[in-house]
Amino acid sequence: MKAFESINNGFNTTFQPDELSIGVVVPIENYPNSPVPKMYDHLDRVRLIEELGFKALWIRDIPLNLPSFGDAGQTFDPFTYLGFLAGQTSSIALGVASIALPLHHPLHVAKSASTIDQLSKGRLILGVASGDRPEEYPAMGIDFESRDQLFREAFSYIRKSHENFPLIEKSHFGSINQHADILPKPTGTKLPLLITGSSRQSIDWNAKNGDGWMNYPRNLYMQKQSIGEWRALIKTGEPFDKPFMQPLYIILEEDMDFRPVNIPLGFRIGINPLIEYLHSLREIGVNHVAMNFRFNHSSIPETLEQISKYVLPQFHLRRKEIVHE
Fold it and tell me: Residue 158 sits in a domain of what CATH number?
């Protein structure tokens, strides 16, 4: 098994080959009956998941509250909010799942993301996507059908921004002619960019260009096949292996042996079957699971304590963490 590339603190401590770590999607609260969370005690909840040993927190890029989508996420601007959380936490990875690149100028994305990476001492993990909510595009004056090309151009722009005085060729987003530089730079050699879904690109392109893959839950057989196909492409031309992660909606039942019942993108489930399922995910090559408790019935702090007590010890990363100074 090839090692994963050493990129920054957040990436290195969240992803390790043959291992599975667990993170949490923000907002960390129950809001099953409304698309908009209250965001009460949000900072206390973030501090709690760091204290309990969850490896990463994940926020989303949702510019507009759309009834057709049904979820406004954390409501706060992702980069402003992550900058705030960077100053209120010390070790947990700060993940974005994911920035819809066509909706943002990549210079702003690169500058904001690198700023958070610097302020957090290298804890940023940046998921990137082409975007899948058509209503957002007219608000930005952007053609929804061109998002595949815009994604590639923005992705390339961000990669180039890591260089000193980069030459960025003319594109939809403009150009830079090596007489100007983009600051700050990331703490490592680059920002870790995880591609979400296909982002309207081929699996070959994603395997070659992304630093990892973030995809939706599927049944174990289908997920294993997808990961295997993707990793086979990586092995043919890349010096490092790359991590795979997925979200998982959880309704944690009091009965620790409660057998899983499907809900969209997850399960109603007891602690013991949850542990079994996570072991199965690790066996098929999943390296990180971002748990979402939006539909959870029980007290969120109690649920987090239960998972910390019974689940996290099963998935301590056994290899030594590699951290940039």
Answer: 3.20.20.30
